[in-house]
Amino acid sequence: MKERRVPMTSGFITLTDQTKLYYERYGAGKPLIFLHGNNSSGRYFKKQVPFFANYFDCLILDTRGHGRSNNEATELNFRLLAGDLAEVMEILKLSKATILGFSDGANLALAFSHIFPEKVEGLILNSGNYRVNGEKWLTRVATQLGYFSLAFLGVFSTTFIRQKNMLSLMVNDLPLSEIDLEQITAKTLVIAGTCDVIKPVTPKK
Fold first, then answer.
1. 100 and 180 share a domain?
2. Among candidates 179, 195, 177, 35, which has minimal Cα distance to 107?
3. Number of Cα atoms under 13 Å in the Cβ half of residue 98
4. Which of 133, 147, 161, 170 is the most buried (most CB within 10 A)?
5. Which domain holds residue 161?
6. Sheet of strand 187-191: strand arrangement
7. How many domains are contained in the chain?
8. AB hydrolase-1 domain spans which residues (predicted)?
9. Checking DSSP bridges between strand 30-35 and strand 120-126, what pairing results, if any?
10. Does residue 122 sit in the same domain as residue 182?
11. Within a domain: 116
């Protein structure tokens, strides 16, 4: 049987509004926070964490309204999620961390870095897009159709409301301008795949 890494610590962190966020923490060293993508959870990083835990204090979160975390608010947006992350860091006594985000996790890392720059040591941004039109058109159309369908079905079941709230993160631009992005001073690694749903871009210095 394949050996399974047991979390150093795990459980739920209760936020000010009584939302409970599930987290796991592995390893020791400088803090490295993992942020998953839309409609996903911290389990997304299960193959990466065993390696990074040899070098870092790894914190894996299920963000609000995702995975094992609930959502006591009526909506989801990146400002709210950024505030959650700041509160988690305060509770766990992490003054500063490197943040690794995939997809919406990368978008959250950008928003967090803009709002709480003093808490960011560095950024690893994989497959992020701060504008909706940064997605390829087929993905964008499918997301919009899914969002409006779930908004209708939400009249009949709270399960659909949870799904709609998650998709709302993909149908709205991040509350950031190009000037805001230029003001981010943390060391940053940007990763994009050749088969990504994000449009290819020419990097700017």
1. yes
2. 35
3. 17
4. 170
5. 135-172
6. 9-14, 20-26, 56-61, 30-35, 97-102, 120-126, 187-191
7. 2
8. 30-158
9. unpaired
10. yes
11. yes
- Give the Cα separation of 173 and 83 in Å (integer): 18
56 and 142 in a common domain: no
Considering the domain boundaries, does residue 1 fall inside one?
Answer: no
List the structure tokens of 150.
């779930």
**Could you report the per-residue pLDDT of 133-153, keeping only the tens digit for each?**
766 667 777 777 876 788 778
pLDDT tens figures, 16-41: 999 999 999 999 999 999 999 999 99
Largest CA distance in the chain: 52
Shared domain check, 100 and 166: no
Q: Locate 4 and state its tokens.
A: 């399974």
What is the C-alpha to C-alpha distance for residues 191 and 176, in angstroms, rounded to an integer?
A: 20
Any idea which residue has 């720059």 for tokens?
117
20, 40, 60, 191 from 67: Cα distances, Å? 11, 6, 12, 24
Distance of CA 160 to the CA centre of its chain: 21
Q: What is the mean pLDDT of residues 80-87?
A: 98
Q: Write the CA distances from 97 to 56, 90, 163, integer angstroms.
A: 10, 12, 29
Residue 121 corresponds to which tokens in the numbers above?
């040591």
pTM (2 decimals)? 0.88
Structural domain contains residue 184: yes
Contact call for residues 128 and 113 (beta carbons, < 8 A) = no
Alpha-carbon distance of 55 to 91, in angstroms, equals 22
120 in Cβ contact with 112 (< 8 Å): yes
